[in-house]
Amino acid sequence: MKIENSNLKDVDKIFELYKNATDFQKTKSVVPWPEFDSKLIKKEVIEKRQWKIIINNEVACVWATTESDPEIWQERNDDPAIYIHRISTNPNFRGRNLVEEIVKWSKDYAAKKNKKYVRMDTVGENIGLIKHYKKCGFEFLGLSKLEDTDKLPAHYHNATVSLFQLSV
Fold this sequence. Notes:
By secondary structure, this protein is α+β, with helices and mostly antiparallel strands. Helix content is 32%, strand content 30%.
């Protein structure tokens, strides 16, 4: 297993994994992801903020990072943190605890960038994800009603999010 930046050749695979994740979300009665703009994903790739786990030469999981997330984290955005978005696991690798691998990687990544926290969010009060992320070491900080969502993807509009934080 290795973790590395995604590249532009991975964009089709990233969208395939997003579609798989969205289809899975629809079976769980949670807010599904919208179709993301390819310009956003390509920009993240170029800025080296899109990541992947490779297992046996296959993309097993993808996610994105940022060092600022003011629309979701509001006044807490001033804290030194990295933010993880859109973890999407290849169905062939579900159940392999890849979020725990991302946790290990993200703590090291955040420490190298002199950050105190690793943060994530999910739309709504997804009890299953809350339990899973807590099991992986995240503290559940509660629910937050988003106010300024114009710059965010559609699933965040008029949404309440579950916030998670991990101390580095």
